[in-house]
Amino acid sequence: MALQNSYNLSLRPTNAKSNDYASTILPVATFDSCDGFWSAFSRCPRPDATTTPVDTHIFKTGIQPIWEDEANRRGGKWIVRIPKGLAGHYWEQVVLSIIGEQFDVGNEICGAVLSVRFSEDSIAVWNRHASNIDALHKIRDSLYRILKLPPICVIDYKPHDKSLHEIAPARLAALNGNRSG
């Protein structure tokens, strides 16, 4: 079954040494179908089996998993911190929701990153426009629904470029602190 978009799956070992972040990203596969997704996804290390820090990226084809990419530079990311041992299930749910277009925000979603670290893991969903408050609320609320997070669980939004003035500090604080249905 064909997907609405084509996606790139890639890995980046966090111990990669280079001044150019993009050059340390290792492509795994490009896919545009459900079968292609499962074939690519099965080749990535499971978070609970990874002993060294690594980032796994899934982004729409044509968008690099770097904030400097034109599609990302005015955007940001919702970050969910996950206790060790739970990231595999949560990551799969987020990725399936992205490729299945379940966030209902049009072309606003760029991709997602799973960051496996020693003490905790995190999942970040990247979007195009930090100024699109309605889309930000939908993405945040979708993450709570998809991951079945309790309302007390805090997820944070961070614009990629802190020098942007599109989101004033008070608006960002309100966005992070006020979850509306």
Structure explained in plain terms:
The longest helix is centred in the last third of the chain and has 15 residues. The chain has 181 residues and is an alpha+beta fold. It is globular. The protein has four helices and seven strands; from the N terminus they run ββαββαββαβα. About 3% of the residues have low confidence. A seven-stranded antiparallel β-sheet has the order 2-1-3-5-6-4-7. The relative contact order is 0.16.
Described by strand count, sense and barrel closure, the largest sheet is:
7 strands, antiparallel
Shape: globular
- The span between the termini is 32 Å
Oligomer: single chain
C-alpha-based Rg, rounded? 16 Å
The portion of residues forming beta strands comes to 25-35%
Rounded average pLDDT: 87
Helix and strand composition category: alpha+beta
Helix content: 10-25%
* Uncertain stretches: 163-168
Care to count the β-strands? 7
**What order do the strands of the largest sheet run in, or round the barrel if closed?**
2-1-3-5-6-4-7
Count of DSSP H/I helices? 4
Q: List the helices and strands in order.
A: EEHEEHEEHEH
